[in-house]
Hints:
The protein is α/β, with parallel strands linked by helices. Helices cover about 30% and strands about 25% of the residues. It is built from 14 helices and 24 strands. The strands form six sheets. Strands 22-23-1-24 form a four-stranded mixed sheet, covered by helices on one side. Strands 2-15-17-16 form a four-stranded mixed sheet. It has a four-stranded mixed sheet with strand order 4-5-3-14, covered by helices on one side. Helix 1 (about 20-30) runs parallel beside helix 7 (about 190-200) and helix 5 (about 125-130) runs parallel beside helix 6. The mean pLDDT is about 95. Bound molecules: ligand EPZ. Ligand EPZ binds next to helix 1, helix 5, helix 6 and helix 12.
Amino acid sequence: MPSITVTGGRPLGGTVHVGGAKNSALKLMAAALLASGESVIHNVPEISDVDLMARVLEGLGARITREGHTVRIDASDITSVETPYELVAQMRASIVVLGPLVARFGRARVAMPGGCNIGSRKIDMHLHGLEHLGAEIAFEHGYIDALAPGGLSGSQVILDFPSVGATENLLMASVLARGTTVIDNAAREPEISDLVDMLISMGARISGRGSSTLEITGVDRLEPTEHTTIGDRIEAGTFLVAGALAGGPVTVTGFDPAHLEMLISKLRLAGCTLAIGNGEATVTRAGAIRPVDVATLPHPGFPTDMQAQFMGLMALAEGDSVITENVFESRFMFADEIKRMGADIEVEGHRALIRGVTSLQGAPVVCPDLRGGAALVLAGLVAEGETVVTDIYHIMRGYEDFTGKLAALGADIRLVGE
Ligand code: EPZ
């Protein structure tokens, strides 16, 4: 079973370049379904989730060619509107093919996604929104059947919660609907704006980019396009926390620091110096790590995808801090693992109380999920002795060459076994 072995104590320094945003690229690939012809998407990370989305699209009849970080998707001859359970079960983000398929073909049949380690991951807002646009939703044998034989009609949709996936599915459903759709309480994550940019370049008519109210005027057809994915702010944030833990200076390039304002502000409060450049940020820490309270919220709040990494930093702070997880119902599994390394963390419901300790000890630990796994590797970078991280397939889903990039910064880290 492959694992990552890291021996703590080495200083980190240098420059690391992040790839395209996983949580944008997957949706940009689904958006290619909206137009007949070949769309080209650049800066797509080489990670297993992208491989899975390519399989989902090929299962629908799209032709995919990969050239490094460029993916070509020809959706001229879609032969199916069904996405099987074995693919959705592996990657719940497959659900974002629902909107484009119903929009262009009037039908989609997608397996119900399961929950995962961080929560039930419901999709009620996706489905209610599609019903508002005129789709009929039925469930049978574990599949969602969405039908709109006469096409979709624009409508006002107010989301109970600014769900990223629901916003994306409804955006892609509404661009070909008759009339105007307003999505209120929409998510404002940078990845949403990246999708809006691609859809507009395909001929969609969308206003309110970056705000919580998106207005879409449906058009008759969209054209394929060429688009470059924004840099991965969560991969960038992960390396900034690595630099904060080990002291740095670590420069992270290839992303927009404006997409990480809240994390940068919290790292400064934690005693780090952050120098912000054009498309890059440099983190240095000279003194002690100071305790900082954090509450995860939809963007521009503190990103839930940075919660575990930040908890690892707070584990070594001089004092106590509280982390509140407001986005997912059970996203503290990382805490159980880092406690095996000597962290002093008490979890109660949505709150974790972290009492800073002076050092962590290397130990065998198991990745609970994608971000928790990355955070365990970061903890191993500064723990005394050796940490062996298993179930690292979680990490491979969202980080391209994670161990190689950390090794290039000076970490004593090895990927063991394939
Ligand atoms: C996206 O998930 C990201 N995944 C997640 O990143 C990220 O944590 C999340 O957005 C929040 O930023 C991808 O983009 C592939 P949500 P998504 O819909 O779209 C509840 C990572 O580590 N909800 O905003 O699933 C839901 O259960 C991953 O890269 C409903 O109740 O997130 C959750 O508690 C992890 N009903 C909350 O909303 C719905 O219909 C936020 O979910 C939809 C969501």
